[in-house]
Structure prediction request, 498 residues.
Amino acid sequence: MKHTNPIINEMFDAAQFSETGHQLIDLLTAHLDTNLAGSAQVLNWKSPSTESLKWQAPLPKKPTINPKELLHKLSQEILPNNLAIHHPHNMGHQVASPLPLAALCDLVASLTNQAMAVYEAGPSATMLERQVIRWLCSLINPETWGNAGGVLTSGGAQANLTALLAARQVSSSKANPSSSIWKDGVSQQPPLRILASEHAHYSVSRAAGIMGLGCDSVIKIATDESGRLDLSALKSAHQRCIENQEVIIAVVANAGCTPTGSIDTLSAIGHYCTTHGLWFHVDGAHGASALLSENHREKLAGIEMADSVVWDGHKLMYMPAAVSAVLFRDEHHSYAAFSQDASYLFQGNGHEDEAFNLSYRTLECTKRMMALKLWAAFSLYGSQGMGALLDEAFAKAKIFAEKIQKRRNFELLMPPETNIVCFRYLKNHSNQTQANKHQSNIRQCIIQSGKFHITQVDLHGITWLRTTLMNPFTTEQDLDELLENVDLASQAVLSMAK
Ligand SMILES: Cc1ncc(COP(=O)(O)O)c(C=O)c1O
Prediction:
């Protein structure tokens, strides 16, 4: 098919798509091989202010490169200056080294661009999403989650917001049936509160801010020495809310909290919430994937009592970002977060096909076909294959923790429950501020060396080095090397200070 305007013709040239596409796959295959082998640097560190000097070109009015040069730019300038996500020394954030075939599914999603808001704007895309949602719910519990439902969202932060919006709607209308918070806003309501672990992800406080409750409406519940929400602190906070005539819209527990990966005692919290009629939300963005493993799913016992669960695909399901699920035990609640009047999209309540229009349940109107990659991965590798990835990550974290404990000058924060390991390096510091600064300096030194990528976290005034072991190709030797590098970085930092 030819267009009369040559530039438009070129933009949609299928032959060029094929030629460039094949070359792109070759380029990415080489990139993947190099990264998995760990032969390049994990991060080519340059300060953002230096790097930004390279990206000041004016907006091109005319073409400045052809497709070949685009590939050249990618291979020479863009890919080498990104974080090498498949590198065995990439141990920082909770981001998956994605399954290559899942990444191909994202290419399909991009080219076919199904809008997904309503069924007809992506019939297969809608069916794939419903299928995947059913699979995830059945992993929580095939019986009690038999009438469950939910949607895929672009990330766990949005999934948490969606769950908490639904919780706000359901809990506030229980407490105050004469007013609808969606229609009337929060001014007609008694003070609304969220009780959340002090380790809850920031998206929980942010959701409270977005919902107009103010982020101070999130009451932070203390955790124990294992990083788990303290049940007696939860009970006291609940009691205080009752005395102050505040309405609790949700109790938020973590299944794999962000700082330490700790999993709250979901069963005890779930029982408490059920007894007291409180909405129980489990943020399993990180750790819900333990449901895929026969070895680890017991750690999540009680998750089936949740009213809502968040589960990220781009963490321990090894998907390219972003794909997250927000799941509701009672499917009706998946409609509670939002309300809308949009005749250009929806045909109204009572139409038998209306349930197939997914955007009733999401903040997003247009969204990517996110389910294809998850559906493909489950179909290609089975839940057992996906569980094997999680087993691998959790086992590596345990080995790493044992290595830390055996080393002089190293302190382990706690034995890991998932794949997040926090530790610090101690060297005769005169005070806590100095000890904290030392960890940050070590981390900076390591990152700038390009040898490893690790993160850090502050907990109760103490700074810890933090690793998330995601990559199945990270070996024990890599872990030993990291500890040796921390040792060396510490010496380098101390000698620079002299
Ligand atoms: C426990 C937890 N919840 C929610 C989020 C937010 O997820 P996302 O980055 O997919 O928006 C994170 C991110 O790391 C997380 O660790």
Summary: The domain at 109-379 is CATH 3.40.640.10 (Aspartate Aminotransferase; domain 2). The chain is about 45% helix and 10% strand. The CA atoms of residues 230 and 429 lie 31 Å apart. The first helix runs from residue 6 to 11.
